[in-house]
Amino acid sequence: MLTALTARFVAAGAVGVIAQRRDGDAVDALAAGRAALEPGAGLPDVAGHFRIGSVTKTFTATVVLQLLHRDLDRSVTRWLPAVGDDRITLRHLLTHRSGLHNYTDDLTDPAAIVAGRDTRWAAWDLVAPALHRLRHFPPGADRAYCNTGYLLLGLVVERVTGRGWAAEVTDRLLDPLGLRDTSTGTVRLPAPHARGYLTVDGRAVDVTSFDPSQAGAAGGLVSSLSDVNVFYRALLRGDLLPPDALAAMRAEGLGLGRHETPRGPVFGHDGGFFGFQTRSWHSVDGRRQLTLSATIFGNGALPPTEELVAAVAG
Q: Which CATH architecture best describes the domain 2-313?
């Protein structure tokens, strides 16, 4: 199954792909393609580090629920008055129902993205312009994917705890679970790793090194296949949240995606960060898992998430 799946990604345009499937205690991992575009580059390492993009949102949501799962319907202005709209609640931010402008929609120029890859951003400097843009809809009236909301959630964590989002993720999730391959704020990926690229004026530009503060609590983590699967298994079997908080996360999509299958729901998240695509999906109890990382170049359409979901559901 992994052989066919990874081959599909390479055929669709991925430079390289690594995937890990877990079924109970059985673990199967496979690599396909190349670790880099350079001639002679070998297979990517299945133990490699990669940028997980929006899979970070499940980590952020877990920390928010640990701290505030009984306060989800309180206005975010309780902690961040500068948001200015007391109708927007934590639940709206977690479920992409705030109506706020998504700041990453403005990141459309590959040359500008490459030029700014060493910029260290403060979360509020990214959020503030988005707050002054036209709202897409009143809070709660609709749903539109919004990275702005997850940066705000990171700022809420900072306001509640007096410490940064990164410190809380590390102390509450990474260290207790032994996720030694997972880190915040990592500019240069630790070895081993494949290389990611952006297309600028028709040529491949290596963007493997990138300051992730541009994504922060919305998408800034670096991890590995094994670490991502360990995290989701711990989350879904109830090790990280009270039962009512986990039930709400599953039912409402609080930082957690859900796909229905004939064998029941499958949970997880997709993620993208310049040059990297991650997909991570899991059975309801975390027993059956599949996480995949692809490095990309060009504009090819990768296989749909439903292919991974079907593989998890069996």
A: 3-Layer(aba) Sandwich (3.40)
